[in-house]
Give the backbone structure.
Amino acid sequence: MKTIKTVMIGVGNISGIYLKNIHETFKEIELIGVCDLIRERAEKAQQEYGIPKIYETMHDAFADPDVEMVLNLTRPYEHFEVSKAALEAGKHVYSEKPLGADLNEGKILLALAQEKGLHLGGAPDTFLGAGIQTCRRLIDDGFIGTPIGSAAFMICNGHESWHPDPEFYYKRGGGPMFDMGPYYLTAMINLMGGVEKVFSASKVSFPQRMITSQPQAGKVVDVDVNTWISGTVQYASGAIGTIFTTFDVKWPGEKSRFIEIYGTEGTLFVPDPNCFSGKIELYRPEEGAVREMPMMYGYPENSRALGLADMCKAIMTGREARCDVQQTYHVLEMIEGFEISAKTGKWTKMESVYHRAPAMKLPVLKGILD
């Protein structure tokens, strides 16, 4: 079977599910090496999954002629340097979100990938799972009529109570919109289409946060990014949407609503876009009640690396990748647009134009993409 030889740069907290899925599910990804600044992490991954190579530096990995694809799992503010170096070395790149820590980084990476004719894209890939793909099918098939609006809510009280190394969430490239916003924004544009302009207000509610999780419990970190962001989007279709993200709310548990899509004939309640499935509910007034809808697509479980597998298949077949840079760039421009709008008090017009990639197909064999 044809595979794309891939190297993982960064073997931190998120790497575990990638390693599991690459080795157990996705047949067209061949992980030939790992690299991390903390070598013990790379050694642990190698021992657990039988990975052939450990690279001392990312540049050693990029110089390896066997490597075709770079999986960039570094911290958000490191994404740009890693992806840029990989592209310059002639490697395709799939990155964890966001594409870069600001739009200028995204522009440089986009131009470099286009110049070299390389695939570039990345997370989130949760929208490819059973949940969001089923919602897309329901909308496209007219179950709520014509979409006229949306609302999204990402509400929590921060990551310092559970994450082993949460400080970066409050530094450049962090915050609720950069961290969790891409899941919501990616789902929104896949369901509603591209965005023409955005408006926002934002603030820092708590200038310092205390870490209560191990191993850094008791450490106080300065908050350098906004942690309360309310945004409005105008879609290219004319529909209006809102998104609220915060790390500042004392929330007792899971909320029942994540994204709501409003149509001329009904309302669709979309599951958590940070997951690959969840409860999907539909309300139509003639029925007089909300009813749960069945999943119609594959990959309902935690399938991180699904987007990477899709990109590998795109490289092999010549089709577009569903998690390509035109999507990650559009999302990054929205996030920066919110920041600019909050500072100026004005709408920020988008420059990029987004088109939805083809919907997923039911897998004939799990782990092999169409």
Notes: The longest strand covers residues 147-155. Residues 325-344 form the longest helix (20 residues). Residues 4-126+303-322 form a domain with the Rossmann fold fold (CATH 3.40.50.720). The chain has a mean pLDDT of 96.
